[in-house]
Amino acid sequence: MSDEPSKTPLDHVTDTLAQLKEMRHYSKNNVEMLTTQWLLFDGELKDLKQAEKIERLMVSQGEFYDALEVAITELEELQGELKPATEE
């Protein structure tokens, strides 16, 4: 058996929230980098008939980022509900 105490539901939510926020950070950076590349090479990509592929990736990445924001918001609300009330 492990000497570590079991994690509470709050601990699990907090850990998951930290991971999602890290994913959000990298996702945002990826979207920005892809958009920059898109803007630089839009004409060439169209000429090579590759623009649609990149556009679909950008849309998918944007949808992922939006879904990630929703998940983070919902977990933050759950985290608030799970925190013990402090005595005043």
Textual characterization of the structure:
- By secondary structure, the protein is mostly helical.
- It has two helices and no strands.
- It has helices at 9-47, 51-82.
- It is rod-shaped.
- The model has no long low-confidence stretch (mean pLDDT 84).
Per-chain topology:
Layout: H1 9-47, H2 51-82
Short précis:
The protein has two helices and no strands.
Classification by helices and strands: mainly alpha
Tally the helices: 2
Order of helices and strands: HH
| Mean pLDDT level | 84
Strand content: under 5%
Shape: rod-shaped
* Model regions low in confidence, pLDDT < 50 over at least 5 residues: none
Q: Output the radius of gyration.
A: 20 Å
Cα-to-Cα separation, first versus last residue: 39 Å
Specify the biggest β-sheet.
Answer: none
Counting copies of identical and different chains, the oligomeric state is single chain
> Residue share in helices?
over 70%
* Number of DSSP E strands: 0
Provide keyphrases for this structure:
88 residues; mainly alpha; 2 helices
